[in-house]
Amino acid sequence: MRGVVKRFGSQTVLDGINLDIRTGETMVIMGGSGSGKSTMLRLMIGSLTPEEGSIELLGRDICSLNEKRMNEVRKRFGILFQSGALFNSMTIAENVALPIIEHTDLDQDIIDIQVKIKLELVGLLHAADKYPAEISGGMKKRAGLARALALDPQILFYDEPSAGLDPVTSSQIDQLIISLSRKLGVTSVVVTHEMDSAFTIADRIAMLDRGRMLRVEPLEWYRELRDSPPQEAASRPEGERLIRQFLRGEAEGPLTERQETRAYEEALFGVGTTVTQTPSLQPTRS
Ligand SMILES: Nc1ncnc2c1ncn2[C@@H]1O[C@H](COP(=O)(O)OP(=O)(O)O)[C@@H](O)[C@H]1O
Ligand SMILES: [Mg+2]
Question: Residue 12: nearest ligand to its CA?
Fold first, then answer.
């Protein structure tokens, strides 16, 4: 992404985003609720177009592609949506087969083998003939992932892959993301606000705050910042102290000062104009 600006009406949701994602890496896009993470993802997969800037995906400038060419690019990446987005009237195996039937003219027995391979990869071969209503939330995520893998994508996009899952299931999904990245060599782009998950799976983390990209750094950089002693941290620039507070889920720091300042401004000038600008970086605890 180069200089990407996205607006909805008068609201600027992304403001000059630059981001490079390297082949084979796991890039985590992290930030509080409403910071623009899902919007970034939807721009990357071509389901939204930016008002300014450019986006290149798999060597193509996706903002200038027509629908037909964009569909060619779509076959080369997979997406795991928040809900898993399975068709309830179809079995898990049928759900996974669907993109293969839609986008290829392979024989049914070849498709069956493909489906079994994908289900095996996510540990769901035993549930092939079950319907979505018959399986747990974690299994639905796995099934959604198997379907995202159906066409052997080069890139996998995940939007909050562990949302709504219990901690154990959610760390199983993290392990699955890691193992798919290793086994298949895919590039993974993961949107999450969950710190534990980010620290488990990321090679690099892009930190988004209210539509702006604060930092893009290797995981080690964030680990070092999180664990830095308070005196040393106090001398760091505000952006870094803000990230540190977010990483540590602390109640006091630049994040909360920002909130308090605004509460004061609101008391002075009246609520209404600033109330929609709630800070998107909210400390999360695991
Ligand atoms: N289709 C849309 N129309 C209008 N506003 C939107 C739309 N999608 C997202 N937004 C707004 O953009 C901001 C960022 O949303 P989103 O990218 O979903 O954040 P995140 O995924 O980080 O929680 C929010 O204020 C949200 O209300
Ligand atoms: Mg989101």
Answer: 1
Regions of the chain with pLDDT less than 50: 271-279, 284-286
**Helices and strands per DSSP (H, E), number in the chain:** 11, 11
Ligand 1 in reach of 36 Cβ (< 6 A): yes
How many angstroms separate the alpha carbon of residue 12 from the centre of ligand 1?
10
* Residue 178 to residue 202: CA distance in whole angstroms: 9
Residue type, 60: R
pLDDT digits (tens, 9 = 90+) for 45-73: 999 999 999 999 999 999 999 999 999 99
Please name which of 80, 51, 49 lies closest in space to residue 67, comparing C-alpha atoms. Answer: 49
List the one residue out of 263, 246, 255, 243 whose CA is nearest residue 279.
Answer: 255
78 lines ligand 1 (CB under 6 A): no
114, 150 Cβ separation under 8 angstroms: yes
Has this prediction a pTM greater than 0.85? yes
Establish whether residue 13 lines the binding site of ligand 1, counting it when its CB lies within 6 angstroms of any ligand atom: yes
- Give the integer Cα–Cα distance in Å for 233 and 2: 31
